[in-house]
Amino acid sequence: MSKLVLPALAAAGAMVLPAFAQARPVTFEVKLKRYGGDGAYVALYLLDKAGAYKGTLWLAGGKSKYYSHLRDWARLSGGGGRLDGVTGASVGAGRTLTVTTDLADALIDGGFQVRVDAAVEDMRDAPSDAITPLTAAGAGQPQRGKVYVDAVTYKLP
Predict the structure, then answer these.
(1) Which helix (H) or strand (E) holds 82?
(2) DSSP state, residue 6
C-alpha cells in the first residue's frame, strides 16, 4: 500500500503547492465508448503549456507490463517507471471512470491540459485519445475522444 500512498502524496504536493496557491477539488469523468472488447487501461495525466509532463492524475489498469501501451503517457512520463498518481482497476467498455483530485488554482486557465491515453488488449492503442484544456470556461463541457474515449468532462466547485 505504501508504494501507492507515497507517490500519490508527492504528486498531490507537486500539483497543489506551487507558490502555496489555493487548491480546489476537480472531478474528471472519462466515459468510454461501447467498443466490444476487454476493459481499457487508461492514463489521465497533466501537461503544461509547453507540452511538458507534470504528473499522472490516475492510472486505470492493474498490470504494469501493459503500461507501455499507453504510449504518449509512457513516453512523456519517462517510460511509466515514475508512477506519481493513484491506480485502480481497468475500465469496462461503456463505463465511466470518475476521479477527483485537488489541483492548484494556478493550473486552471494557466495553459495546462489533461490528456487521456487508452489501450485495450488485442485491440489498437489510443495515445492522446482525448485532450482537454484545463480552463474555467471548459468545465462541464465534454471533449470528445478519438478511439475508446467517448468524452472527458471535468467539474470545478
Answers:
(1) none
(2) H
